């Protein structure tokens, strides 16, 4: 029996004997894999054992449950092809398997000290992200019976996803999660769907102390949102009329700008950088500025001669440069699709977390300059307002 078989045998044995506690798979064989780690536990669904797979991404976790047979088949496959390291914890032993460069496996078995228990939590209904429905009714997302209004399903999905992402980032960044009270500013808050949902989750469900400010230039929306906040007693949620360019919030821990039009996203990023916000999150909207600033560049003109491709190209370039600029100012930036494109085309999200590490400004600036030259971009608005 080779090492791989020995490991799998230990796995199937502990499942059979019901001593399985946890299996973690790490070191993806594809270095570009978005799933960085997989944590597998065992849970009970309707009293039947299931594997619960938690797929760990850079910025989020996704959980999927499988019955024992299906999950077991996937595990064999995953260990064989997708991950280089597997750690299996049972009540009695810790088994590890590591794929070597020569394709062979290293296998180790260590006795447990008795502290690992094969607990079988019941799969509860997914905890609601919202503690109350009043504000969703007042915002017109739910009807008076508490059902989602016909045209608001996608918005509710988006809002839930945003809240999940922001919560995931806070959980993974302990120092940020500990800020008390946390000052969050949502720029271009519009009708306040996300602003209310985030407040409700953090303040009411999580019991976190926070101050959440929505900034919006349309006074009618500000007035409606303030009335709703008052009505549902969201005491530390306020909306202020003003433009992103003008506002000067005192200090910001988390800066959010979702679908703020065109360069309003840049204005919001500027405010985040200036107040050294620990976290900046934006979901860019239209990208007109860079498209207009793109002059014919020989390397890309065969692409940009087609209007729609020029538009897409401009979108990619705008957000790449935004992310690089954030890195230039000491942030670790990520760009990802936060929701399937079937719900909205505007589905890219940029998150940037402030770090204290060294920043290779020269290299980053060189990358920005090189992108601008290659693609014939005369100017990037964010760069201009930061200079
Ligand atoms: C597309 S909506 C998005 C609303 C909300 N953030 C969301 O994602 O559901 C953009 C909002 O930003 C506001 N807005 C755009 N530019 C702005 C600016 N420069 N200053 C303040 N508000 C702005 C608009 O009035 C609008 O309500």
Give the overall form.
globular
CATH topology of the largest domain: Rossmann fold
Number of strands: 15
Helix content bin: 25-40%
CATH superfamily of the largest domain, please?
Answer: Vaccinia Virus protein VP39
Q: How many helix segments?
A: 13
Give the mean pLDDT: 89
Major sheet size, sense and barrel closure: 8 strands, mixed
Could you name the ranges where pLDDT drops below 50 across 5 or more consecutive residues?
none
Number of domains: 2
Q: Tell me, what is the CATH class of the largest domain? A: Alpha Beta
CA distance, first residue to last residue: 65 Å
Could you say which small molecules are bound to this protein? S-adenosylmethionine
Percentage of residues in DSSP E strands: 25-35%
CATH level-two architecture of the largest domain: 3-Layer(aba) Sandwich
- CA radius of gyration is 24 Å
